[in-house]
């Protein structure tokens, strides 16, 4: 049950954070991680692959939000970049077997390194690109509505810009001098 919570929580945070408006890129991350985990599972004769997928998604989120402070069991607080390793250590203490968590962390690191770290921080060429067919299936979007039907801030700014008169002047009404009735 805790694993389902982690999957929902961190997958949602990734989809609405780093991959906001780019569902094709988000789907590519999931497909890349899933394919790597399936290949590893076939090589290592693993039957259950859900935990490595959850951990790979959590690892990518944690690296993209490195400095965010997160809370873990019993009120322990630390930086998000340590969360996948804390979960791995916690599961080692509880169950003793950590191969699933370790594979998930390694696959998540492979995606993060090839997509973000190597091309952006180390100046290397980008090895991973989202295929065009995913952009056709999941077109990039901006706008829509956020919680409770309220337009997101970018949509509100665009609507405000349309209401303004031309020339960059503000339409504040006729106004009144202080002291006048």
TrEMBL record:
<feature type="compositionally biased region" description="Basic and acidic residues">
    <location>
        <begin position="157"/>
        <end position="166"/>
    </location>
</feature>
<protein>
    <recommendedName>
        <fullName>Derlin</fullName>
    </recommendedName>
</protein>
<dbReference type="GO" id="GO:0006950">
    <property type="term" value="P:response to stress"/>
</dbReference>
<keyword id="KW-1133">Transmembrane helix</keyword>
<feature type="transmembrane region" description="Helical">
    <location>
        <begin position="82"/>
        <end position="103"/>
    </location>
</feature>
<feature type="transmembrane region" description="Helical">
    <location>
        <begin position="31"/>
        <end position="61"/>
    </location>
</feature>
<dbReference type="InterPro" id="IPR007599">
    <property type="entry name" value="DER1"/>
</dbReference>
<keyword id="KW-0812">Transmembrane</keyword>
<feature type="region of interest" description="Disordered">
    <location>
        <begin position="149"/>
        <end position="181"/>
    </location>
</feature>
<keyword id="KW-0256">Endoplasmic reticulum</keyword>
<dbReference type="Pfam" id="PF04511">
    <property type="entry name" value="DER1"/>
</dbReference>
<comment type="function">
    <text>Functional component of endoplasmic reticulum-associated degradation (ERAD) for misfolded lumenal proteins. May act by forming a channel that allows the retrotranslocation of misfolded proteins into the cytosol where they are ubiquitinated and degraded by the proteasome.</text>
</comment>
<keyword id="KW-0472">Membrane</keyword>
<comment type="similarity">
    <text>Belongs to the derlin family.</text>
</comment>
<dbReference type="GO" id="GO:0005789">
    <property type="term" value="C:endoplasmic reticulum membrane"/>
</dbReference>
């Amino acid at each position: 049950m805790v694993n389902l919570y982690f999957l929902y929580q961190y997958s949602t945070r990734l989809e609405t954070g780093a991959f906001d408006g780019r569902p094709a890129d988000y789907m590519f991350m999931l497909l890349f991680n899933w394919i790597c985990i399936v290949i590893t599972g076939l090589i290592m004769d693993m039957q259950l692959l859900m935990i490595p997928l959850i951990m790979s998604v959590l690892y990518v989120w944690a690296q993209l939000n490195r400095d965010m402070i997160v809370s873990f069991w019993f009120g322990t607080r630390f930086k998000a970049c340590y969360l996948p390793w804390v979960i791995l250590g916690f599961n080692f203490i509880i169950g003793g077997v950590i191969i699933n968590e370790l594979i998930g962390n390694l696959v998540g690191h492979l995606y993060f390194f090839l997509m973000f770290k190597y091309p952006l921080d180390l100046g290397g060429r980008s090895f991973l690109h989202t295929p065009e067919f995913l952009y056709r299936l999941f077109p990039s979007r901006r706008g829509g509505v956020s919680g409770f039907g309220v337009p997101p801030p970018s949509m509100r700014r665009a609507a405000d810009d349309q209401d303004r008169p031309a020339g960059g002047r503000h339409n504040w009404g006729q106004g009144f001098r202080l002291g006048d009735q």
